[in-house]
Amino acid sequence: MSQADHSKSPGNSHGIRIAGVSKVYAGTSRPAVDDVSLDIAPGEFITLLGPSGSGKTTMLSMLAGFVSVSAGKIEIDGKDVSRQKPHKRNLGVVFQQYALFPHMSVTKNIAFPLQQRRMPKAEIAAKVDEALRLVHLEEYADRLPSQLSGGQQQRVALARAVVYRPRALLMDEPLGALDRKLRDELQREIARMHRELGMTFIFVTHDQHEALTLSDRIAVFNEGRIEQVGTPSDLYERPETLFVAQFLGESTCFRGTVDVSAGVLRCGGFTPRAPRLDAGLDGSGGVAVVRPERLDLHSDAGSVPTGHNRVRATVTEIVYVGNHHQVGLRFADGTNGSAMRVAGRDLPAVPGEEVTVSWDPEHQSVVADPADEPTAERPAETLGAAAT
Ligand code: ADP
Ligand code: MG
């Protein structure tokens, strides 16, 4: 697609370019955002995903112009806007704390940015009507924000943010305060708005499901840096770091030593085959990551397809979750894992019994073991599962 090409091409004159941007807040020493580069294509739905404190809000605030950049630059359609005032950037924003004007009706709230732009009255009325239709609030035009539910208030905020057709819409956890059902509903509304408007959407969340559902691409933030950028399936199927693998979805993680020439990971007791190993990892610690739906369980090891990795495990628990069973596994080296079985298919074992676990090595990713890097902090939970 031409959009994807744009985002990777140098000299991106259309779209939004973040080039080597850092932020060090006054009175702090560690950067909140640390040398982030990202190209966002026109019309793209991109999500900044990461845990609390990873720098998402800081990055979005620098894009919007609410927070200054300490280093690097931000370009919109080829123009450096790093020092431009927020209103000059022509971006719509819906931040968590971005409240509506409480004394103004829904209509007046939505009309506000158009009045500021000195648009003629008749045109304002038409644009507001169109925005009300977009967020399905035609019936609520005359109400005050206090007469609306939380979800309806966020719809008004969305309508107000897009009514003047900004260059892009920036949203910081806009669904954070809503309960599950309303969240799901508004998620679908946001996806529909994106399709209808064809506008660039930049969305911030710490919720992996929200990110996977909505985004064309996701940038995973960790400690102020981007760990990986890719489509939802890139990140899920081909995580490049242990952080990405563990932040998005569940996985079983086998730790060992990478042997590139043999094409294997040498774990304590077994050596899974590993195609496409990164040569830079040779001789150092690696983690083979496998998603639950890729693990097959067999009572009879004879049924494992040739070429697939196999290892024995004890079933620790079986949890029924509606359309599938989650099967907890403990491997001989102490690694804990989980497999998923579609409900209605026979389970090969009950808790306490042993099974053979197998998977296609094509469906596994081998990433560097952060616990093996002398400079990295050693996270306690990753050490606990280390192969012996
Ligand atoms: P996120 O949105 O991912 O939770 P933030 O961008 O809010 O992350 O915060 C990133 C880091 O910057 C955190 O360590 C936070 O404490 C720090 N931080 C955020 N805002 C400020 C500020 N105004 N002054 C100093 N430190 C800040
Ligand atoms: Mg935040």
From TrEMBL:
Keyword set, alphabetical order: ATP-binding, Cell membrane, Membrane, Nucleotide-binding, Translocase, Transport
Keyword Membrane: yes
ABC transporter domain: residues covered: 16-248
SMART domains: AAA
GO cellular component labels: ATP-binding cassette (ABC) transporter complex
Class in the EC hierarchy, top level: translocase
Region (Disordered): 359-388
Stored InterPro entries: AAA+_ATPase (IPR003593), ABC_SmlMolc_Importer (IPR050093), ABC_transporter-like_ATP-bd (IPR003439), ABC_transporter-like_CS (IPR017871), Mo/tungstate-bd_C_term_dom (IPR008995), P-loop_NTPase (IPR027417), PotA-like (IPR005893), Transp-assoc_OB_typ2 (IPR013611)
Role played: Part of the ABC transporter complex PotABCD involved in spermidine/putrescine import. Responsible for energy coupling to the transport system.
Protein family according to the UniProt entry: Belongs to the ABC transporter superfamily. Spermidine/putrescine importer (TC 3.A.1.11.1) family.
Protein name: Spermidine/putrescine import ATP-binding protein PotA
Organism in which the protein naturally occurs: Actinomadura spongiicola
